[in-house]
Amino acid sequence: MAASGISATEAFFPVADYDLAATLDGGQAFRWTRRAGGWEGVVASRWLRLEERPGGLRAETASPTPDWSWLRDYLRLDDDLPAILATFPDDPPLRAAVAACRGLRLLRQEPWEGLASFMLSATKQIVQIRQCVALLCERFGELVAVPPGRPPAHAFPAPARLAAATEAELRACKLGFRAPRLLAAAQAVAAGRLDLDALRGRPCAEARAELMRLAGVGRKIADCVLLFAYGFQAAFPVDVWVLKALRELYFPKRRPKPARLRRFSETHFGPHAGYAQQYLFHYIRQRAGRGPERERNRR
DNA sequence: GTCCAGGCAGACG
DNA sequence: CGTCTGCATGGA
After folding, report:
1. Handedness of CA A295, A128, A145, A79 (dihedral sign)
2. Buried-most residue among A37, A39, A158, A245 (CB within 10 A)?
3. Residue A92, Ramachandran bin (φ over 0: left; ψ between -120 and 50: alpha; else beta)
4. Distance, angstroms, CA A31 to C1' B6?
5. Beta bridge mates, A58
6. C1' of C5 to CA of A220 (Å)
7. Cα–Cα distance between A164 and A153 in angstroms, integer?
8. Which amino acid residue lies closest to nucleotide C10, measuring CA to C1'?
C-alpha cells in the first residue's frame, strides 16, 4: 500500500486512531519535540515532521523521499490495532486503559538507539532521559539535513562513534554511573562482539539473554529493547509504573513481587502483551498526572 | 530538605 | 534463594 505523495518530501498515510502525542511522547522514544502543532524528530538519520490529519498522518522530510517504507515500519502502520485490542483480556483495568489511551501505538525503533536509550533509563525520569539522549546526539551524532530555517538536527550516534568517546565525555552528557556501561556496550557492538541485527531472527528468549550479557542491561531494559525495537510483542517490561499499575489494578489487596507479576503477565495478557503493557503504563502515569498531556499543558 | 526516577549489580544472610 | 545498598543527577 503506497502513500499518496503530494511531493517527494511529503506523504499522507491513511490510518485510524493514531495518537502521536501518546505514541511519540509516552516514554518509548526520546527524540520527539512538539512544534507548531506537529512532532519533529529524527528517524533513520532523516529529519522528520509528523502531523495528525483527518483520516491519517502527514509526514514531511527534508530531502526527497522516493521510498517511505522505513517510516511505515517505524510507525508500525501495518499493525491492525483493533484486532490487537480484541486479543486483550476483557477485564476492567485494561478496558479503562484502552478507553483512556485511544490511538496509543507501539513504535519499531532501531535496535542500537533503543538499547542505548534504555541503558540510560535506569533511575532516571523520562525528561532526564530525553536530556541525556539529546546531549549524546548533539555531541556525537552526524548532522542531518533539515528544511530551511530549522535548528540543526543530529542522527543518533553510531556505536563506533560512542565507542571512540571517553568515559568522561559520556559523563559530561549527564549519564552518571551509566556512562561506562554505555561505553562498553558501544564497544561491544562496534567490535562485532554483539550483533544487534542478528538478534532480529532469534527467538525472544535468546535475544533477551544476549542483551542481558551486557553490563547495565537487566530484565527490564532488555524487555524494553525487545518490545520497542525488535517488535517482540510478548515482551512485557515491568518498571516501577507497570509494577504500580498491576498492583493497584489487579492485586489491590496483596503486594506481589515483580517476578510474580511478570509470570502473571505472561499468561494473562495474551500474544500482544507488550501492547497491553504500554496501555497500562500510559494509563497509570496519566492518572498520576505524569503523562505527556500534562507536560504539554504545563507550558 | 526529602523523596524518587521506565534499574542494575554486588554483597550479605 | 531473598533482601539491601550504592550508584549520578536532577525533577517534583
Report:
1. negative
2. A245
3. alpha
4. 15
5. A12, A51
6. 19
7. 21
8. A128
Q: Would you state the cell numbers that stand for residue A278, as one nine-digit string?
A: 504500554
Helix (H, G, I), strand (E, B) or coil at A2: coil
Q: What is the pLDDT of residues A91-121, one digit of tens each?
A: 999 999 999 999 999 999 999 999 999 999 9
Chain C positions with an atom below 7 A of a protein C-beta are: 2-3, 7-12
Nucleotide nearest A127, CA–C1', reads C11
Residue A93, helix vs strand vs coil: helix
| Strand B nucleotides, any atom under 7 Å to a protein CB | 4-10
Name A291's Cβ contacts closer than 8 Å, sequence gap at least 6.
A22, A26, A282, A285
Question: Residue A4 — very low, low, confident or very high, per pLDDT cuts 50/70/90?
Answer: low
Q: Give the burial string for A53-90 (b: 16+ CB within 10 Å, else e).
A: eeebbbbbbbeebeebebbbebbebebebeebbeebee
**Residue A21 is inside which H or E element, if any?**
helix A20-24
Alpha-carbon distance A210 to A228, whole Å? Answer: 16
What pLDDT, in 10s, does the model give residues A258-295?
A: 999 999 999 999 999 999 999 999 999 999 988 886 54
Evaluate if residue A299 carries a pLDDT over 90: no
Q: How many CA atoms lie within 13 A of A175 on its CB side?
A: 26
Tell me: pLDDT of A254 over 50. yes
- Residue type (1 letter), A209: A
CA distance A200 to A210: 12
Say yes or no: Cβ of A145 under 7 A from any atom of strand B.
Answer: no
First to last CA, chain A: 39
Question: Is this prediction's pTM over 0.85?
Answer: yes
